[in-house]
From TrEMBL:
This is Uncharacterized protein. Coiled coil: none annotated. It holds the Pfam family adh_short. InterPro entries: Fungal_SecMetab_SDRs, NAD(P)-bd_dom_sf, SDR_fam. It comes from the Eukaryota. Residues 221-240 are annotated as: Disordered. Signal peptide: none annotated. The lineage of its organism: Eukaryota, Metazoa, Ecdysozoa, Arthropoda, Hexapoda.
Length: 240
């Protein structure tokens, strides 16, 4: 069993984020003592509110990952919840899908927003929670003489196979899909992950990007290729 003190998941009201929340609450192999699910409008997050009825360790907080000036308030609330042990695991899951269409149809405002949500926001969210991640890494240092671990302190960025330039250019399944904004944002997120990984390992913080699988969500059923038979029933939980 993975012993995780606390986990915070962005964009947790639906899709992959919601399933991660369920798994960290119910999966005996990956339970967390404290689960913090963030979303845009907590009062409208029906599935999260239903989960909370049976899980007192689930905390639902409002967070718009593009409203950077609100982060200090959210971090303060999270600090009160997690206490002296800090935040063990941050999952940057909140995302926006890209533009499918021809080059001349691109809306620059939508294009820019997707880049902000999918690449800029995870970096800024990680920066905001860095003090709590450092706190967790320091608190658990004696338990992890072998180095980095999810149970010490970690940041997991939810990326996509669409971020691979090779797949984008050559794959019969994915290469022909025009998803301006989305594909570039995931490629950029992977680069940001590499840079944060290099910098934060000095503090004992693991940083990784993962492709959770082709999962049936509201986003993937609105125009992406593949029948329901090709979807994974659940996203792949990080296990490193």
């Amino acid at each position: 069993m993975t012993d995780i003190h606390s986990v915070l998941i962005t964009g947790a009201w639906t899709g992959i984020g919601l399933e991660f929340t369920r798994q960290f609450l119910k999966n005996p192999e990956a339970q967390a003592q404290i689960v913090i699910a963030t979303c845009l409008v907590p009062d409208e997050a029906a599935d999260l509110l239903e989960l909370q009825k049976n899980h007192s360790n689930l905390h639902i907080l409002e967070l718009d990952v593009t409203k950077f000036n609100t982060f200090d308030s959210v971090v303060s609330k999270v600090s009160e919840i997690v206490g002296e042990k800090g935040l063990t695991l941050l999952i940057n899951n909140a995302g926006a899908y890209g533009i499918m269409g021809r080059l001349e149809k691109i809306d620059p405002e939508v294009y820019t927003k997707i880049l902000e949500v999918n690449c800029v926001a995870p970096v800024m969210v990680t920066r905001a929670f860095l003090p709590l991640l450092k706190q967790s890494a320091a608190t658990n240092a004696s338990k992890h003489d072998d180095g980095l671990s999810l149970t010490r302190a970690a940041v997991i960025n939810i990326s996509s196979i669409f971020g691979s330039i090779k797949v984008t250019g050559t794959s019969k399944t994915y290469g022909s899909i025009r998803a301006y904004g989305y594909k570039e944002s995931k490629a950029a997120l992977n680069m940001s992950t590499q840079m944060m990984s290099s910098e934060l390992r000095a503090y004992g913080i693991l940083v990784e990007s993962i492709h959770p699988g082709f999962v049936q969500t509201d986003m993937t059923t609105k125009g992406l290729p593949g029948s329901k038979q090709n979807y994974h029933p659940k996203p792949v939980l990080p296990t490193c």
